Automatic annotation (TrEMBL):
Single GO molecular function: pyridoxal phosphate binding
InterPro entries attached to this UniProt entry: Ala_racemase, Ala_racemase_N, PLP-binding_barrel
Pfam families according to UniProt: Ala_racemase_N
Organism of origin: Verrucomicrobia subdivision 6 bacterium BACL9 MAG-120507-bin52
Domain Alanine racemase N-terminal: 6-225
Record's GO cellular component terms: cytosol
Cofactor(s) for this UniProt protein: pyridoxal 5'-phosphate
Protein name, entry field: Alanine racemase N-terminal domain-containing protein
Keywords on record: Isomerase, Pyridoxal phosphate
Domain of life: Bacteria
Source lineage: Bacteria, Pseudomonadati, Verrucomicrobiota, Verrucomicrobiia, Verrucomicrobiales
Stretches of the chain forming a coiled coil according to its record: none
Length: 386
């Protein structure tokens, strides 16, 4: 059966390595849980790993986290839409902000709900995503001083998520200066500089963190275990949290290059996933029960080096099997490790079955055993009523 599998043992390892590195730098972090796409079993497993602070840009996911971990701290990961201010305040302890109108609305809604809402103001440092200039930050800070139900807790920035801008010492120094200037101008302490991302985790693990940053928003590297800059595996992190298993529905020996004249516009996916140097070659080709309708497939890496992506349609993924001895048969599953875009699309797809791979008990207190027991009971109930 075609499915996405979450290896909880690998997730536990990565969480503990990152958590230890962040604590060693005397910093804080929140788990960016977007890649789980609200998958409840995955969120429960993440909570069992010890996660208590979560960030996401989808309120539905954050509401699920609230149900699973009622005492969790939750952050809304993008500037809140005015239309969603009520849900943001009800669901999240804090949010990242850049707009005066939204701050005013958050304050009014926090007063109505009888709560306090944390705010991090986002600075523009060159990524051209969310963020305000120094002059605009001063204006936003002035608004915050008139919002008694908002707690201004820090200054943040986003680098690398839109255009892939790499953080530099100049960026860190700029944030430090901005923080000191705002603290002095408004006589208001800002305990957090929230600009740490997955890009900075390799340095954290090697005990070489940027000293100006003390708050990290970490997601991709937690789940994929690879350096975002180089694409290489990071020491002590595992790369097998996510694995796609796709079932073989056809297995035949045939030519690897198409016959006839290819016409542009006939295939909606023409020109993609066409391995070079295969004209005239013949060999075993497998068709797998997963297609572009299920998600982005170009970022899949076969775990078997003898498997080579050949192309995909909306319903099927074609792979070539290299070598003389073919050890697969129809009904077998081939395994792949997805990159970020593929993992995101496949986890979001309601066509793909998602499962968790059980791990050893995490604590002497039996936290993990209790979690596994709940999963077994769920499966038993599903079978009874299926």
């Amino acid at each position: 059966m075609t499915r996405m599998e979450i290896n909880i043992d690998a997730l536990q390892n990565n969480f503990q390595v990152i958590d230890k590195a962040v604590r060693a730098s005397q910093s804080e972090w929140c788990v960016v849980a977007k890649l789980l796409c609200g998958f409840r079993d995955g969120l429960e497993a993440l909570a069992a790993c010890g996660a208590r602070t979560f960030a996401d840009s989808r309120l539905r996911h954050l509401e699920s986290i609230r149900e699973i971990v009622p005492d969790a701290e939750t952050w809304y990961l993008r500037p809140p839409p005015l239309s969603q201010v009520r849900r943001v305040v009800a669901t999240c302890n804090g949010s990242l902000n850049t707009e005066e109108a939204v701050l005013v609305a958050l304050n009014q809604e926090a007063a109505r709900q009888g709560v306090r809402h944390k705010v991090i103001l986002m600075a523009e440092l060159g990524e051209r995503r969310e963020g305000a200039s120094p002059e605009e930050l001063a204006g936003l800070a002035t608004v915050l001083t008139r919002c008694p139900h908002l707690d201004w807790v820090g200054l943040g920035a986003n680098l690398g998520c839109l255009h892939g801008i790499l953080p530099t010492t100049e960026h860190y120094a700029q944030l430090k200066v901005l923080r000191e200037w705002l603290e002095m101008k408004f006589s208001h302490p800002l305990p957090l500089i929230s600009a740490g991302t997955s890009l900075m985790v390799p340095g954290l693990i090697e005990q070489n963190p940027p000293p100006e940053i003390n708050h990290y928003r970490i997601g991709e590297i937690l789940f994929l275990g690879r350096d975002l800059e180089t694409g290489k595996p990071v020491a002590r992190l595992r790369q097998d949290v996510f694995r796609l298993f796709a079932e073989i529905v056809e297995l035949r020996e045939k030519g690897w290059s198409p016959l006839g004249d290819a016409m542009s516009g006939i295939s909606p996916f023409a020109g993609e996933n066409k391995p070079e140097g295969q004209e005239g070659k013949r060999g075993w080709r497998a068709l797998l029960a997963v297609g572009r309708l299920d998600g982005e497939l170009s970022g899949l890496v076969p775990e078997d080096p003898q498997v080579q992506l050949a192309g995909a349609s909306s319903d099927l993924l074609a792979v070539n099997l290299i070598g003389d001895k073919i050890r697969y048969k129809v009904g077998d599953c081939l395994s792949f490790r997805p990159d970020y875009s593929s993992a995101l699309g496949l986890m979001h797809s309601h066509y793909i079955e998602k499962t968790v791979l059980a791990a050893e008990p995490m604590t002497a207190g039996g936290t993990w055993r209790r979690w596994l027991s709940r999963q077994a009971e769920r499966l038993r109930v599903r079978r009874i009523f299926r």
